[in-house]
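Anyone up for a design puzzle?
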């Protein structure tokens, strides 16, 4: 990367992390750098600054980056929808999966997670605004899915994830975030070890944090606009 690009990346990263910390007001919050479509060189540069967690949407794209960045201390999250035929690759190569939304995935991921690896961290994706075009389970399906995950020693239930509808009205987004916080609190009542509520992106991550997010997924504010979908 050019020196100017490196400087811009550092300025953007420090700005996002500072804004996240300010919104959290002393609560722990983690910034997940969404590196979808971005080159491995950009990930390497951000990791050198201290960013550890990176989110990818596509399994094959992520595996290529993982191979190029072997040896870097990176925590890999899959944040895109998961097809059943990709469960082995995810179980073998990722640290987190944020998009569990049906029981079938639980059994496949547990079966394919290697014995020598730490349990795969899982978040249940919730379709909080009931959008027909969006993945995620309904809120009333969280409990059974959570119980299934908790029963698998090769998996670790960490919490919930959601992508609320991109309403221009921020109050509508706030209400969706608040509903997710309610779901998270209910899950913690039955599974006290859960600790992660992943919601909020570049345009609304501070609002999400104020409503209880412990992890926010930030891409364009760090890396600039995506080069492709």
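Challenge accepted. My sequence:
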């Amino acid at each position: 990367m050019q020196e100017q690009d490196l400087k811009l990346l550092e300025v953007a990263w420090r700005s996002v992390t500072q804004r996240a910390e300010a919104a959290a007001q002393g609560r722990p919050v983690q910034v997940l750098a969404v590196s979808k479509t971005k080159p491995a060189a950009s990930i390497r540069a951000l990791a050198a600054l201290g960013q550890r967690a990176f989110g990818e949407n596509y399994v094959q794209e992520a595996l290529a980056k993982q191979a190029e960045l072997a040896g870097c201390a990176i925590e890999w999250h899959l944040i895109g929808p998961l097809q059943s035929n990709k469960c082995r690759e995810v179980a073998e190569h990722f640290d987190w999966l944020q998009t569990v939304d049906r029981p079938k995935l639980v059994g496949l991921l547990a079966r394919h997670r290697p014995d020598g690896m730490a349990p795969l961290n899982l978040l249940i994706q919730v379709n909080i605004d009931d959008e027909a075009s969006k993945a995620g389970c309904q809120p009333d399906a969280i409990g059974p899915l959570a119980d299934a995950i908790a029963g698998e020693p090769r998996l670790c239930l960490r919490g919930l994830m959601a992508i609320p509808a991109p309403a221009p009205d921020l109050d509508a987004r706030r209400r969706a975030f608040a509903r997710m916080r309610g779901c998270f609190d209910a899950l913690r009542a039955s599974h006290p070890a859960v600790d992660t509520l992943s919601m909020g992106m570049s345009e609304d991550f501070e609002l999400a944090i104020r409503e209880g997010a412990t992890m926010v997924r930030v891409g364009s504010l760090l890396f600039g606009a995506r080069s492709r979908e």
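A detail worth pointing out: The chain has a mean pLDDT of 96.
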